[in-house]
């Protein structure tokens, strides 16, 4: 993880293209998942677009934070949080993803009046979404507990995939300063602002997961939140520890969706 992204869309406007603007989770047990995240983050829920099946939007203080949808019973896909990157033209971005060696597995398709979306993967297999906003600009609140703070791609090495994201989404790549010369870590910038990261971890990448995006959520107290995850039936994969960006823990919900908790001193 590097510097967390700032406020959501500037002055309430649309997210600049390439910026992580939404995060969504597809699960088998909608009711149990809502109960877990409601208890963990204080989220409330309201119905969202149903184009891909049952779907709800998570709200914090009445403002959209994230989405949770239901997988068909016969679909045994990995349960994972998926970041969506903003686009002015999802069809063009999807075509660029294909041209750069990625794949598009869903869409582009309309999500009712909310916007238009596609779901793709980079050349290493890491899954992400593309979002062209209409009524739903994206996550409407950040910087407070229970909201997305950062998205980081965990992959084998940055060199093999960073160029894909630069071309597909217009990122500027900058190395992360580290006292360890072997650290393989870059940030992706839009208009000079860090919006996401890529971390090459080599053999430390879990074989059963492969390259994947990890979403960080703000927590008031990382240690307390990690304990609450356990009490709610989730798992702590990496115990809370201090980093230059704050205190971080990696956890999983009861269905196995992995995410990180972070408390950053401001």
From TrEMBL:
Give the matching PROSITE patterns: VOC
**Which positions fall inside the VOC domain?**
19-133, 147-264
Q: Which residues form a coiled coil?
A: none
The protein depicted here goes by the name VOC family protein
Note the PANTHER family from the entry.
CONSERVED PROTEIN, GLYOXALASE-RELATED
UniProt-listed SUPFAM superfamilies: Glyoxalase/Bleomycin resistance protein/Dihydroxybiphenyl dioxygenase
The cross-references to InterPro entries, in alphabetical order and at most eight, read: Anthracycline_SecMetBiosynth, Glyas_Bleomycin-R_OHBP_Dase, Glyoxalase_6, VOC_core
């Amino acid at each position: 993880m590097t510097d967390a992204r700032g406020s959501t869309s500037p002055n309430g406007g649309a997210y600049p293209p390439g910026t992580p603007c939404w995060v969504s989770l597809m699960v088998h047990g909608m009711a149990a998942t809502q109960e877990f995240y409601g208890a963990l983050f204080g989220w409330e829920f309201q119905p969202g677009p149903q184009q891909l099946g049952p779907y709800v939007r998570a709200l914090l203080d009445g403002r959209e934070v994230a989405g949770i949808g239901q997988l068909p019973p016969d679909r045994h896909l990995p349960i994972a949080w998926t970041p969506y990157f903003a686009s002015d033209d999802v069809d063009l971005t999807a075509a660029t993803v294909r041209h750069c060696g990625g794949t598009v597995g869903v869409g582009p398709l309309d999500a009712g009046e909310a916007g238009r979306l596609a779901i793709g993967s980079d050349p290493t297999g890491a899954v992400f979404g593309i979002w062209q906003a209409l009524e739903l600009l994206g996550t409407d609140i950040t910087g407070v507990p229970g909201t997305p703070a950062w998205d980081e791609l965990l992959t084998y090495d940055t060199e093999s995939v960073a160029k894909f994201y630069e071309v597909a989404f217009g990122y500027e790549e900058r190395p992360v300063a580290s006292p360890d010369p072997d650290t393989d870590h870059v940030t992706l910038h839009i208009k000079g602002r860090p919006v996401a990261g890529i971390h090459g971890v080599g053999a430390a990448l879990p074989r059963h997961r492969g390259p994947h995006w990890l979403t960080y959520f703000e927590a008031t107290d990382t240690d307390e939140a990690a304990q609450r995850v356990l009490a709610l039936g989730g798992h702590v994969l990496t115990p809370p520890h201090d980093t230059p960006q704050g205190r971080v823990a990696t956890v999983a919900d009861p269905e196995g969706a992995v995410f990180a908790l972070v408390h950053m001193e401001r």
